[in-house]
Amino acid sequence: MVRKTKQEALETRHRLLDAAEQLFHERGVSRTSLQDIATAAGVTRGAVYWHFEDKVELFTAMMDRATMPLEEGLLPREGADVPPTLSDLRWGLLNVFHTCSHSERTRRVFEIAMKKVEFSGEMQALHARKLANHRAWRSQNEACFQAAQKAGQLPATMDTAAAAIALVALVDGLIHQWIMDPSAFDLMAMGEAAIEVFMNSLIQDGAPLLPPVSPEERARLGTQAICRPTDSGLNIATPKD
Q1: Under DSSP, is residue 177 helix (H, G, I), strand (E, B) or coil?
Q2: Where's the HTH tetR-type domain (predicted)?
Q3: Which of 25, 54, 23, 49 is nearest to 36 (CA)?
Q4: pLDDT averaged over every residue in the chain
Q5: Hey, which end of the chain has fewer CB within 10 Å, N or C?
């Protein structure tokens, strides 16, 4: 009898998470109440509070259900002293692209997190989690690059912190672009190609394609010209006083 009760509670929890995921995606998080979720799940509002303290906890559980496998693949294991290898890093990122492309649930919660939630009011606490995850991701990347430097796989002069930030921006940017327009490109194919190009670029020691921007040129960019995207490319306009 106890086993059946636990099973029923688990089924109710999943129904609530399913309802929250669907309503958050349709209406946005701020426009969805706990009563809306309870009604959609076919339970009472009291049942919601039995499983979740508030909307933040429910939202967090919904995200965890879809993204925890991805975070476990990207973030360092608790207590692990050995950073991932470059190969581990690559396969972890490819797993992210593959899961986004093939899991409807993962794609939906990513879209909710990117487009359907305002990190203000009661949801402000979620911003701290997002920031912590990004910092941990960058730290993992940097530790991986530093280990590769010690192994002689990457140039000793490479800025590992900058490379770590660039990799996060690359992956995050690709997923954002794909979520906005999934028909624009194949996320798995584009992601794999982008990661290969990025990783290979770290070991290049030839002459740069463009000379570095001088301090004088950088100053002019900041005070004399503004780059604005247009249908035909970039329009360089001089700001008026």
Answers
A1: helix
A2: 10-70
A3: 23
A4: 82
A5: C
Secondary structure class of 14 (helix, strand, coil): helix
pLDDT tens digits, 133-162: 889 889 989 999 999 999 999 999 999 999
189-205 per-position pLDDT tens digit: 999 999 999 999 998 76
d(CA 132, CA 162): 18
Instruction: Round to whole Å and give the CA distance between 137 and 139.
Output: 5
Which domains are present in the chain?
1-52 (1.10.10.60), 66-204 (1.10.357.10)
pTM, full prediction: 0.75
**Structure tokens, 119:** 């990190």
- Can you tell me the mean pLDDT for 68-73? 55
Q: Which are the contacts of 16, defined by CB distance < 8 A and separation ≥ 6?
A: 37, 38, 41, 43, 47, 48, 51, 52, 58
| Both structure tokens of 138 | 């960058």
Check: CB of residue 22 under 8 Å from CB of residue 58: no
pLDDT at 100 over 80: yes
Burial 210-237 (b: 16+ CB within 10 A, else e): eeeeeeeeeeeeeeeeeeeeeeeeeeee
DSSP 99: H
Give residue for tokens 């089924």: 11
Who contacts 208 (Cβ-Cβ below 8 Å, separation ≥6)?
Answer: none
